[in-house]
Amino acid sequence: MDTYQNISAGNPVLDGIKVNFGEYVARMRSRDDAHRINGIPDYAFAMDLKLREEIRKIPFFYSLSKKVAVHAEARYRQILTASSVLAGPNQFGDLYEMTQDCAKRLGIGSPNLYVLHDQSVNAFTYASDTVTPTIVVHSGMVERMTPGELKCVIGHECGHVHNEHQVYMSIYNLISGALSGAGSLMQLLSTSSVFLFLQWSRAAEVTCDRAAMICSDNIEDAVNVNKKLAYGSFINREEEVDIEDLRRQLDELSTTASVFTEIGSTHPASIRRVLASEAFAHCELLYRWRPELKKPGMVLHTKEETDAECEKYTAVFKQSEKR
Ligand SMILES: [Zn+2]
Questions:
Q1: pLDDT band at 8 (very low <50, low <70, confident <90, very high)
Q2: Which one, 16, 60, 202, 297, has the greatest CB density within 10 A?
Q3: Ligand 1 centroid, distance to 297 Cα (angstroms)
Q4: CA distances from 134 to 27, 208, 232, 257 (A)
């Protein structure tokens, strides 16, 4: 018996289109396992996996958060249905198609995508074991990104679903009070556990920036999203961002008091994400997913080398050179 809530049920936008959770699970089970290692997508950032293992050792929170998240997310979906637009073939058809494309590329069921009236440049994903995943893209993001960049934003969010980040994200949302009524749970966690969640969240973003690149039509679009998030302009001036200058900027960032603001953040600084994305653009694994995007003469690195490079870029405190 299906006990899940299906946001598309009775919704004229998606009438006749199968997006229910049973369909979603069936597609998940039949997906191509060629790109999985022990059930985990092969492109996942090693630090993301390592920190997830640490989180699973925290007593009770995994099982507790799974139960509470189902109710909190169902409530959030009701609010979303009333205050945003669900993309479908007849409205925001381009975003709907991008979502279908990204989901197909990664081998997951297609999430629902909502455009939310909010001028901040943001996108996020809600999911649990019992509902079709939901991607929310702010109108500010839709207006600021090119179509190619928007596809990468959606690919990034599909990456959170593909990597089953939802359980860990739910835990973080619960302890931080982002899901209403749960703020006091923060007090049950030690400071070190809170920082562990934040460190994991930043590593998970690197994994999903890789998913964005795998889903992209043009690898540069995936790097450009992070460049645009760094300089914030409506105008496309990505070519003016110089990678070597960014490396120098990162050096400064990692050796000043700025790091103390970063350790409390769920996302890596955008310049770190640009450099980590650049590193994955030269990883041989990317071209196992997308051989048609490989350019002649490219010097490629192994997944392990790329992970080590990304760890260097995303570590808030500067690492010693011998790594
Ligand atoms: Zn993300």
A1: very low
A2: 202
A3: 32
A4: 16, 16, 26, 37
